[in-house]
Amino acid sequence: MQINHAEIRRYVTDLRQLAASYQEGGNLAETKILIDEAIRDVNTGLSGDPVCRLVVWTALQQEVRRYFSNMSDPRWLDAMNHVLFRIGSRRQTALHSKKKTKRNPEL
Fold first, then answer.
1. Where are the beta strands (DSSP E) in the chain?
2. 92: nearest Cα among 61, 48, 47, 46
3. Measured in whole angstroms, how far is the alpha carbon of residue 23 from the centre of its chain?
4. N or C: which terminal CB in the chain sees fewer CB atoms within 10 Å?
5. Environment class of residue 99 by beta-carbon count within 10 Å: exposed (0-12), middle (13-18) or buried (19+)?
6. Nearest to 50 by CA among 87, 94, 5, 1
7. How far apart are the C-alpha atoms of 6 and 78, rounded to whole Å?
């Protein structure tokens, strides 16, 4: 299944809300767990095609970066850095999988 731009924006909104809840005084460990769960939800909605996964994770990463500023609240940045780290990790996995599939087309 391919995720469209509207769904990407919805996921980004959900992740921003989690970051905002931490910024308002929430617990960082709990927020990270919720962020991880939200990113797992994105992952389960993706097809097995590595190219599709790479496109979606790249788009999600670019969309999240739009909400970064070095003038932001440090608590916001802590949570959003975790979001970017997790998305970057998923993107790298998709990139590796794409390269592996390209070398071994029968996989």
1. none
2. 61
3. 19
4. C
5. exposed
6. 94
7. 26
b/e sequence 40-65, b meaning 16+ C-beta within 10 Å: eebeeebeeebebbbbbbebbbebbe
Compute how many other C-beta atoms are within 10 angstroms of the C-beta atom of residue 87: 25
Distance between CA atoms of residues 47 and 75, nearest Å: 34
CA atoms of 67 and 29, how far apart (whole Å): 21
Q: Output the pTM of the full model.
A: 0.84
Domain ranges of the chain: 5-102
pLDDT in tens, 38-59: 999 988 878 778 888 888 999 9
